[in-house]
Amino acid sequence: MNLAELQKLKEKAQKQVALREGNKKYRVVVSMGTSGIAAGARDVMKTMLDEIEKRGLADVEVRVTGEIGLEDVEPVIRVERADGEQTTYARLDAEKARKIVAEHLAHDTPVENLAVGKEKKP
Amino acid sequence: MIRAHCLVCAGAGCISSGGNALKDALSNELQVRGLDEEIRVVETGCMGPCDLGPVMLVHPDGTFYQRVTALDVPKLVEEHFIKGRPYQPLLPKDEVTTAAVNTQRDFGFFAKQQKIVLENCGTIDPENIQEYIARDGYRALGDVLSGLKPAQVIAEIKAAGLRGRGGAGFPTGVKWELTAKNPVTPRYVICNADEGDPGAFMNRAVLEGDPHKIIEGMTIGGYAMGANHGYIYIRAEYPLAVKRLQIAIAQAYELGLLGKNLFSSGFDFDLELRIGAGAFVCGEETALMRSIEGRRGQPQPRPPFPAQRGLWGKPTNINNVETWATVPIVMRRGAQWYSQIGTAKSKGTKVFALAGKIKNTGLAEVPYGTTLREIIFGIGGGVPNGKKFKAVQTGGPSGGVVPEQHLDTPVDYDTLQALGSIMGSGGMVIMDEDSCMVDVARFFLEFCCDESCGKCPPCRVGTRQLLNILDRISHGEGELEDLDRLEELAQMVKDASLCGLGQTAPNPVLTTLRYFRDEYLAHIVEKRCPARVCKDLLHFTIQDEKCVGCSVCARQCPVDTIFKVGGQKKYYILEDECIHCGSCVDSCKFDAIVKASDGEGHVTPQRPAVLERPPGRKPTSLVTA
Ligand SMILES: Cc1cc2nc3c(=O)[nH]c(=O)nc-3n(C[C@H](O)[C@H](O)[C@H](O)COP(=O)(O)O)c2cc1C
User: How many domains does chain B have?
Assistant: First the structure.
């Protein structure tokens, strides 16, 4: 073992525990109320998890929450950026979910035509 | 992708309250619901609030759940992991507002602590070296071996102001230097993991929860002192800690973090476990070394100190678990940073084990200088069941009691000593108004008397005689002169004993005499135990006007001394035969039985003319008496 090897090991290991440290750039919040689940929110979330993993995006965490308040346009997710920018996406399906990962989370460009709301929180 | 980590506490406390069953149920439930690829279950070391166990922490939400049983799991998984709502029934409640506390950050027990030694306990999986490395583990060792000379390491430890956590608070850097400067080789380093104080479990938390920190600390110490061999002396009563240490040591060898030529520096270090049989005196360093050598664990006179002539006659440095665990942190973050925490003479943080009459039994890490009040009430939540705080025993059986009027004392080595107690290894046993201070002194003294190795007469005979006097007093047979005898004998035992056991054993007696002399006087002069603990000074009486004649107490009485009053629906206790066990009081639903200690003013209620055997009880000779 030398210092460089230790550093490499650390970087690899950090991925295992990073989730416990918080401070991610992106937080995806999936609305998992009864209506969300009925409309397919779990599929949307699973697709996103899958896509995030495939792309190796380390700076994203995914949480679930109760109703966000948009029951009639479920499945709904909110993408929160660390600087306070929040984008809400509605009427999602697996394909749209992949697109959001590919464009918004991987390349920092919100998918404007899927977004139903955008605001900046301090 | 894993979206959540569910950290289940696998410290000894939570395991004994059902943590393993919880973990199995959780893993099973996640699998059944097809969530096992989204959510990972991680077993961690002690999170601290042992009384609330089994406890569990969910990331990234930071939700803390308490008293989670296997039966709660289906609902919890449904609510938290599927619907994304914290499962309300298992959230802690705020002390003041009683509102549910949603995240660990907001829970007073955690919010008021500063975790340095315990930084990884309850956060990482102690059986996985990767997780330790992820949190900068072995980084300090790598840097030390790649860039610092041994003398520079010692200088850093000195500059940090690190003091030994085993009890006496001796400056660690100074001790290291003594060993390093001894030209004799080989030299040894030892970790004292004997932790024998009743009510202390802070070392266990580190051993179980972050074993690699100890290994890293000892390796750094070995390098600084030119020792290539280390021993961890751990008590057999800590089987989980032993297991985790064994795993950790094997993993460190596998990655080349123990063994030959570490970090290509040419420095070799080997580490072994030695299991002790759990004798308190084997925590004393000279006895401990003899025990490692395979001999009877009895203390030796010092000097020679271990640094001069230690294990197998060679220079040896012994430090406590918490001391060793602090070393990598000091080296990683620097003496400059470390020495800003704490007080002028006591640097850094200390882990305290809260036990006894306190709401949040468990571990609390705070900087030196935090007041007793903040630790006991702020973090510990104070005394449960609306009772009044009476005193806290610090420093285990070698320490003393500190009464209420000194609660605002900032805790460090010197302040506690000024109060007649000691810091010791960090045990705190909290006592409320129901604790009798004569009985408390008796309890701790009896422990030392039992654990005395018998080598030197002041300790062997002296503690026994002290105990005899205390026994007399608690039986109501004490006399005023006993107080002087206690003080004189206590001083003699302190001055003349060979090792720390005898030198400190009288502390509980002396401090209770100093702060609670009135309780001793009540026992001696009035034959009364104000806290109603000392059995021989108690009387149990059934109040006629409250007794409904249900016979429950009579059925509970183990010595058949409760009788039915002839011709009435009342019961009566024949005092002569009563053994004062109190089971009648506990069994009475009508609060009709009074436990009192009225001393000589006690009057036995008039014995009824006819006593009848309670229904369903065998006849006894007393009935006809
Ligand atoms: C009776 C007795 C029991 C002791 N038990 C322990 C113990 O369980 N753990 C411990 O670290 N030190 C214990 N000590 C103190 C050790 O002798 C020694 O001072 C200590 O391990 C040094 O470590 P430190 O410099 O890191 O504090 C005990 C001392 C006495 C007299």
Answer: 5
Q: In the prediction, which pLDDT does A74 show?
A: 84
In a domain, B121, yes or no: no
Question: In this predicted structure, what is the pLDDT of residue B621?
Answer: 45
pLDDT at B101: 87
Q: Give yes or no: residues B254 and B157 share one domain.
A: yes
Q: Does the beta-carbon distance from A37 to B136 stay under 8 Å?
A: no
User: Is A16 close to B256, i.e. CB distance below 8 A?
Assistant: no
Question: Which tokens hold the place of B70?
Answer: 């296997």
- CB contacts of B130 in chain A (<8 Å) are 9, 12-13, 16
Q: Model confidence over B31-58: pLDDT tens digits? A: 999 999 999 999 999 999 999 989 999 9
Q: Is B59 on the interface with A (CB under 8 A)?
A: yes
Give the one of B38, B83, B146 whose C-beta lies nearest to A66's C-beta: B83
Shared domain check, B487 and B414: no
Residues B139 and B225 in one domain: yes
Least Cα distance to B424 among B504, B325, B339 occurs for B504
User: A57-99, pLDDT tens digit by residue?
Assistant: 989 999 998 877 777 888 999 999 999 999 999 999 999 999 9
| Stated pTM of the model | 0.92
Q: Which domain holds residue A91?
A: 25-120
Is beta strand A77-81 parallel, antiparallel or unpaired with respect to A85-89? antiparallel
Q: What is the CA radius of gyration of chain A?
A: 16
- Which residues touch B147 (CB under 8 Å, ≥6 apart)? none
B294 in any annotated domain: yes
B186: preceding bond cis by omega (within 30 degrees): yes
B208/B320 same-domain check? yes
Quickly list DSSP for B461-474. HHHHHHHHHHHHHH
DSSP track, B543-568: -TTT-----HHHHH-TT--EEEETTS
| Residues in chain B where the model's pLDDT stays below 50 | 621-625
A33 in reach of chain B (CB within 8 A): yes
Looking at the partner chain, which of B60, B136, B263 has a beta carbon nearest the beta carbon of A19? Answer: B60
Per residue, the 3-state secondary structure of B77-143, as one string, reads HHHHHHCCCCCHHHCCECCCCCCECCCHHHCHHHHCCCCCCCCCCCCCCCCCHHHHHHCCCCHHHHH
User: Same domain for B353 and B426?
Assistant: yes
Q: Which domain holds residue B496?
A: 437-526
Tokens of A49: 């998890």
Q: What is the DSSP letter of B476?
A: T
CA A117 to chain centre: 16
- Using the 8-state DSSP alphabet, how is residue B50 labeled? G
Give the ipTM. Answer: 0.91
User: What is the signed CA dihedral for B416, B422, B426, B431, rounded to 10 degrees?
Assistant: -80
My answer on whether B213 and B309 are in the same domain is yes
Could A64 and B60 be called an inter-chain contact, meaning their C-beta atoms sit closer than 8 Å?
no
Cα(B166) to ligand 1 centroid in Å equals 4
d(CA B35, CA B43) in angstroms, rounded, equals 18
Which of B206, B232, B318 gets mutated to test ligand 1 (max ligand atoms within 8 A of its CB)?
B318
Q: CATH number, domain at B426?
A: 3.10.20.600
Cβ distance of B84 and A49 shorter than 8 Å = no
Closest CA to B163 of B305, B286, B319: B319
Give the count of Cβ contacts less than 8 A between chain A and B.
Answer: 91
Please state, rounded to an integer, the average pLDDT across all residues of chain A.
90
Picking from B383, B402, B432, the residue at the C-terminal end of a domain is B432
The candidate with the shortest Cα–Cα distance to A31, out of A73, A75, A80, is: A75
Contact A49, A43 (CB under 8 A): no
Ligand 1 contacts CB of residue B360 (under 6 A): no
Q: What residue type is B229 in one-letter code?
A: H
Residue B625's pLDDT is 40
